[in-house]
């Protein structure tokens, strides 16, 4: 079994009871909302990752103002030639504040749209689990950075 580790950093940006989300386009063409952010480049600090990724996906300059916590997930999926991948994602979640830029959509990346969504409507969106995990960390602000 092939082991894959991905470390990424994301921002929970809440303003006027709305959260900033980016629409992720999966390899199969399906689309689901996610937090702005993404994978770290080798040697990159997670703080810098979240700033870069939020800008790429939303057009905003985002300042990380608090480390909310770390979320981890593990799943298996098929790979080519009958192999199976054991995927482990480590997701570092910051609270972010928009300090500049202007909302725009990414044109050549893993997302195709960015938008503010009322917090009350998030449960109705087609979204990845990271949105719920990030908002739970934002609400609870656990001192350990980990939700039970």
UniProtKB/TrEMBL annotation:
Q: Which domain of life is it from?
A: Bacteria
Hydrolase listed as a keyword: yes
**Molecular function in Gene Ontology:** hydrolase activity
Q: Where is the Nudix hydrolase domain?
A: 4-141
Keyword field: Hydrolase
InterPro entries with a match to the protein in the record: NUDIX_hydrolase-like_dom_sf (IPR015797), NUDIX_hydrolase_CS (IPR020084), NUDIX_hydrolase_dom (IPR000086)
Spell out the Gene3D superfamilies in the cross-references.
Nucleoside Triphosphate Pyrophosphohydrolase
Which PANTHER family does this one have? ADP-RIBOSE PYROPHOSPHATASE, DIHYDRONEOPTERIN TRIPHOSPHATE DIPHOSPHATASE
Family (UniProt)? Belongs to the Nudix hydrolase family.
Would you tell me the protein name for this molecule?
Answer: Putative Nucleoside diphosphate-linked moiety X motif 18
Q: Provide the species name.
A: Streptomyces aurantiacus JA 4570
- Which lineage do the record's taxonomy fields give for this organism? Bacteria, Bacillati, Actinomycetota, Actinomycetes, Kitasatosporales
């Amino acid at each position: 079994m092939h082991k894959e580790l991905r470390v990424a950093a994301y921002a929970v940006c809440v303003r006027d009871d709305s959260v900033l989300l980016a629409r992720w386009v999966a390899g199969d063409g399906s689309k689901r909302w996610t937090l702005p952010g993404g994978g770290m480049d080798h040697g990159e600090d997670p703080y810098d990752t979240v700033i870069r990724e939020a800008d790429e996906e939303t057009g905003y300059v985002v300042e990380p103002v608090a480390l909310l916590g770390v979320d981890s997930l593990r799943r298996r999926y098929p790979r080519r030639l009958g192999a199976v991948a054991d995927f482990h994602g480590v997701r570092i979640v910051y609270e972010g504040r928009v300090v500049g830029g202007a909302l725009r959509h990414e044109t050549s990346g893993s997302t195709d749209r960015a938008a503010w969504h009322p917090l009350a409507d998030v449960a109705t969106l087609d979204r990845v689990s990271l949105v719920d995990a990030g908002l739970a960390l934002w609400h609870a602000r656990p001192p350990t950075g980990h939700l039970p």
